[in-house]
Amino acid sequence: MAAGTAAERGLRVVLCEPNQRLGRKLRITGKGRCNVTNQCTSQEFMENIPTNSKFLYSSITAFPPAAVMEFFESLGVPLKTERGRRVFPQSDKADDIADRLADWTKRKGVTWLHTRAEEILTDETGVTGVSTPESEISCGAAILCTGGLSYPGTGSTGAGHRLAAAMGHTIVPPRASLVPLESPAPFCRELSGLSLRNVGLTALEDGRAVYHEQGEMLFAHFGITGPLVLSASAHMRKWGEREYRLSIDLKPALDEEKLDDRILRDFEKYRNRDFANALDDLAPRTLIPVLVELSGIPGETKVHSVTREQRRELVRRFKALEIPISGPRPVAEAIVTAGGVSVREINPRTMASKLVPGLYFAGELLDVDGYTGGYNLQIAWATGRCAGRAVTITR
Hints:
Helix content is 28%, strand content 23%. The chain contains 12 helices and 19 strands.
């Protein structure tokens, strides 16, 4: 986006990309579908940016979600809006977004060099060039858009942080956001591979709810993952300072009274069974032993002998299956990197460095991040567009 926008202005632009294809990371976003943006207003967008949202005000106002949608449709990519106002290509193919962007930059005259930047060269006037393994490229400005640390196999290896730090920029320690979570609960490993759909998930910070949503999640050998968990993780930011746990409502469509009535009907249906064998209609088979153990009701108890108080405890477990959280998975497994180049050292109207003339930044490299739902790609488009429009040759 930055390269094509700068080239539209008539500037000579060289895009250094070491991957075999342009937009390799973009091609795997949204499970290969690419959640292009979120069809919301600029103000609603800001409400979904937990870190340094004010810094993004100018770039988002200049290139809001509606403009992003218009841009991609002008490139020949029809879009559609799904639940949560998430915007995808109608084809459900991230490749369509990446390919059209690549074609657009070529039409605008951008030169792609299959190489990587090793150093930004400067003198007292500012940026003078870029050093690659093969040569030095003379230039009067450079835009860093290297991404963060998530999915390092796509090229996000932290090189941008090193380049920025070498020129005096402060790097806010990178950390994982939108990431699977680890749990010490033994039953997570036992349930590994079990997917739960249409459940309610609440994230608790020192006992206070900081997130709640309904959707899908998945147990894993290390803890839990899936769309709900990734979203919840973005609200869990004070690791080591706060205690976190998740509470799963297995039956969000039923309040406790209605759920108790449902359990009574099942108990009547299976009145001669042991308790451990009477929950088949209420929970996945692999989850039943966990619920039985947590309820405190001996599995061999005949259902007609289960007391009202025992039944209430079972209802509580269905409505609030609690999972202690020990921390996030490594940043390499995260969808998004939080942290990065300090925005205090960048002009929000131009994405220009306040320290080095001719140096600009865009995208995940910056210390900004959003919740799941297309907000992070919107940050990329808006900051890339902003840098491309503002980049000025220093010599």
